[in-house]
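Example 3.2
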Amino acid sequence: MKTIDEDIKSGQFKTVYLLYGDEAYLKKQYKDKLKKAICGDDTMNLSYFEGKDCNAKEIIGIAETLPFFAERRVIVLEDTGLFKSASPELADYIKEMPDTTSMIFVEAEVDKRGKLYKAVQAKGRAVELGRQDDAMLIRWIAGSVKKENKQMAEGVIRHFLMKVGTDMENIQKELEKLFCYTCVGDKLCQDKQEKRV
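Structure, written as tokens:
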């Protein structure tokens, strides 16, 4: 994760990124961060493929097309299964891919022995985004709480985790509910104080 953050910070992007693993929340966050950093709001130079019906020749054809009034063309490929089915044509192409194109693969499972995975490792970054441990989740929740100008003791965070589980997407949704509830509570308290004055 640090390597992707460093690429975004420096503006020096690899031609190919592979985000894989069990943690859907982190994969989505890093996919969106990379997309935003590389092409911003430009949708003209952005192509998106999803599912197992991806055609390697079509992907290569788009990758060979020069970007229109931009530095790079971005191709996002999500849940394609290409890293399980072995796509030798795409693996060979990645080795020769132009610097004007960036590919972002988002996959649940990959075969690390496959030609495509090895090509991505050689030319870009392959980052596993798995389930986070309790210590990391506690720090992440504490940071989210602090951003909202709220406080939550570590024991309360542990209890919260015990109730909602360790899936980061679910934790985020439950935190949003909690923040909304406390905002309503804050508003009610503020209204009562104003009535007393």
